[in-house]
From TrEMBL:
Keywords: Hydrolase. The lineage of its organism: Bacteria, Pseudomonadati, Bacteroidota, Flavobacteriia, Flavobacteriales. It comes from Pseudotamlana agarivorans. This is Cytidine deaminase. It is an enzyme of class 3 (hydrolase). Its EC number is 3.5.4.5.
Amino acid sequence: MKEVKIESKLFVFESLAELPSDVYDLMINAVTARNRAYAPYSNFQVGAALLLDNGEVITGNNQENASYPSGLCAERTAIYYAGSQYPNAKVVSMAITATAKTSPTNKPIPPCGACRQAMVEYELKQDLPIAIYFMGEMGAIAKSESVSNLLPFVFDKSVLF
Ligand code: THU
């Protein structure tokens, strides 16, 4: 038996003020999207903004449903829209912000596992890492240089054929 160790690396910015200006702008887009989230059941609002290599910015937020599992996370709302509208564009970076309405958090909130799986599909398809920036309501922002870095032991198409 041997031990296999996998490491993930994050960079942490102390606040919005420390972000490079293009990332700051992307995060502000995510905040605007977060404020438009439809989350009447969880009251947990999430916004995502994607920068494409054609310069387009695509945003999305969580969309909930009375039939709970029919709702969709912000990250997937945004990345599926990008994939449907710009099938040949590459996603360069993604900013995410999330907070509970009743108890705002200032610690970075990472995308859920299902969203990481959806996001990594596009990273592998485009053969270019997607930089992920994630934040709570405000406060520190964590950066991952790729989705793969957030999703060790990825399930990808190589196992299907
Ligand atoms: N949610 C997201 O939008 N993204 C995530 O990565 C985690 C969770 C949403 C789904 C649901 O509307 C609410 O947050 C509470 O789970």
